[in-house]
Amino acid sequence: MDRLAGLGVVTEREETFDDSHIIEVSPTFVYEAEDSIVPSPFRLGALWTSTAPDHALLVLQYRSSTSSTIHSGEDLYTSFERLDVNIDDDIRRFDATRTSLSDSGVNSVSRSIDTESRASVIVPLDYLETMVSAEDVRIRIISSSGYADSLFHIERSAAGSRAAKSAISEFLSRVNDRRKTI
Prior knowledge:
The chain is of the alpha+beta class. It contains three helices and ten strands. It has one domain. Strand 5 and strand 6 form a beta hairpin.
């Protein structure tokens, strides 16, 4: 079901400009607790390119809609500042790139505007491998809206939805296969 919604989908493509190979996984949910059914408001994805084979971008995403924010008081957009990663009490901080903001325009059916805020952080590929293989990984996404803590080590939500770790694990498998050929 998540893949039909475009969540956690791994894709590959060749760039004609520089003949590089790009692998990415679309942002998908992270969860605040092992028994969570409702995800964090933030999503996590990744991107790798053969031109920088030892690093990956972790993509931070926040999506909202005017129909939900008017009643809930949530922000339409957010500006990402940093991603903190805690692996077995060893904390590393990664500064976010400049946040890009976009919207869908007016949806004539719901009479709302869907919005998206997106940024990324650069992480060494071996560190991302450690994140996927470790048993206790906590992340804190810090933005202009405050921060949200999530458990990255969750592979599926309590409702069975695929979480970011599962999608990024598949992404890393494809990246490692591709790295063997360069």
